[in-house]
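Notebook entry, structure prediction.
Reason for the run: the old model in the group folder had no record of what sequence produced it. Starting over properly, with the input documented here first.
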Amino acid sequence: MPAFTEAKRAYTNLDLPVQTSRQSEYQIFAKITGQLQAAAAMEDFDVQKRALVIYENQKLWLALQEDLRHPDNAFPDQLKAGLISLAIFIQTHSSKVLLGREDIQPLIDVNICMMRGLQRQATG
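New structure, fully documented this time:
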């Protein structure tokens, strides 16, 4: 039996849940937002852990910004512009948080708003 046929048969029998890209995006936002919330609640203030989670959040928003700027992105221009503005805010505010000039809470709030939007899209 050809290897392709064996592989096809093996994967056909799997009962794996299928996720939409919106569900995957929601899960990524939820994970990072939970980490941001934990960093905000740290009483002993572990600077390195907080910086790492802020960096992960920045990477998420940079990836989102890249996707929004791609010519094949089908979102309406006004929505893309708004989300890109949020991504820019995340980058600048994150830098201020890392320097101790701003609070981490606005990063959490923006992510929660994104999660609500993704959840509405997935159920609506």
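Summary: The radius of gyration is 19 Å.
The old model has been moved to the deprecated folder.
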